[in-house]
Amino acid sequence: MIDSRLASIKGRLVVSCQAYPGEPMRSPAIMAAVAQSVVAGGAHGVRAQGIEDLEAIRPLVDVCLIGLVKRGAGDVFITPTVADALDCVTAGADIVAVDGTRRDRPDGQPLAATVAAVHAAGALVMADCGSLDDALYSVAAGANCVGTTLAGYTGERPVTRGPDLDLLTELVAQLSVPVIAEGRIRNPDEAQACFNAGAYAVVVGTAITHPTRITQTFTEQLTHRTPQQED
Prior knowledge:
Blueprint: H1 4-7, E1 13-16, H2 28-40, E2 45-49, H3 51-57, E3 64-68, H4 82-90, E4 95-99, H5 111-120, E5 124-128, H6 132-141, E6 145-147, H7 165-174, E7 179-182, H8 188-196, E8 201-204, H9 206-209, H10 211-221
């Protein structure tokens, strides 16, 4: 039986509210305001990173909160340790997103140890995966759902233009847990394509919550013309 927190995002949009270090919006208060804004717009879930951001967002929204931390410069940096995952639970995450690859984790613990600790603390686990083998590994470790978040970023699959629909379709066909589409979903048509491919939920971030990237898209595509001189 699917937990009610996970069930609340079935067939719905989740919005990732994150800003990169050094950016003007890199502030827990700003991210909390962004989270409130996307919920007002109809998002049924929020994905956020950083303990301070999670603590700021949790009291202000009543939708499912997917929490993570990004730490370190190694391959595994999405909630890389058991301690990081438990910090996310304490900060109010309903679901903790973790690196779901088969790579070694910095605390030396297997993924199953993180999953067990999060479950014991009363939360669920979303495994961010880069391939079918990652997803199978994560499900065996006890993950409640898997995401296509790392598709194209682990060296096992090419970086696709738009979401990796082939991987999404493969995961939906072979896994017994919900599959969440995330990564390079640039517009509503691509989000709908993910649902058509069987996604349980769709996570969109940059295309909604990153003004710098959105503006760059406009400026790169606009054709600048020099006004014609009058005769």
